[in-house]
Amino acid sequence: xxxxxxxxxxxxSKDASEKDIKSxxxxxxxxxxPDVNPNDKSxxxxxxxxxxxxxxxxxxxxxxxxxxxxxxxxxxxNYQRAGGGQPFTWGDAAGGRSGGTTYRTIDxxxxxxxxxxxxxxxxxxRTFFGGGAGGFGGGxxxxxxxxxxxxxxxxxxxxxxxxxxxxxxxILQKDGKKIEVDIRPGVKTGSRVRLAKQGGxxxxxxxxxxxxxxxxxxxxxxxxxxxxxxTVEVPVDLYTAILGGEVAVPxxxxxxxxxxxxxxxxxxxxFRLANKGMPKLNETNNxxxxxxxxxxxxPEKLSPKEIELFEQxxxxxx
Length: 318
Description:
Blueprint: H1 6-10, H2 18-32, H3 41-57, H4 60-70, H5 73-81, H6 90-93, H7 108-115, H8 123-129, H9 142-145, E1 153-159, H10 161-166, E2 168-174, E3 177-183, E4 192-195, E5 211-217, E6 223-226, E7 229-237, H11 238-243, E8 245-250, E9 256-261, E10 270-273, E11 290-297, H12 304-317
Parallel strand pairs: 1-5, 7-11
Antiparallel strand pairs: 2-3, 4-5, 6-7, 8-9, 10-11
Helix pairs in contact: 2-3
């Protein structure tokens, strides 16, 4: 198993702020997005690495654990070579077996059995950050602890912005059975979908734990999401910006709207299209707003006559 340098993957320093990490992630995710690089396996793999790195470094608790591990990586390797038979825990990273932890790591076979091909996380991530982690729940420990609730498991699931808008499904395989999971419209990164009693098996008469799908909405090349609001950059030619006119604005729904551009519109100006953003989770017919941000596109390869006319305009404005 290879150590993953998440700071290096995102191209940031170890003391990078949350803002710097988010900015680096957005830049790389847009560059490596599968829609921008169709059939490019290398870009697809890098895209997964970038998302994995961001999931850890954007979470203060995971980042703290990851930073703690870095200095003890060789200790972990030595522990593995010595034949350590138990999953490595953060107690080990701190310098000793914790003994009382309620978290565990799923081995690769169990991971694939429960989650199939979902997630695409590296072995490193699965081992330390929850290929399946969860605490023992409220199952009774009476009778010598023979009846114990199974562990809750959590699995990251990546979906596109389009899937987040319309809702989608995922198919999981567990114990030879297929489980179809509905992901509702309006989910955000960090939303969780609970599958009751689909987690770890209970001990004795204890019930099974739950399975939680942790949603990660991937960046979209066109739209920037902020909560339920969406911002889209709309190219506007110079003449329309000066004289006024109409331009088509794409929406996250997949359609487009015609937006009236007033004469003299400045570059960067935003127009609010009410209720044309993302659907609000569990709120029927309630949507965020869509903001169309003007990007003025200057004409290229001007003819001598056009240059002459622009010179005349320049003199008129002098």
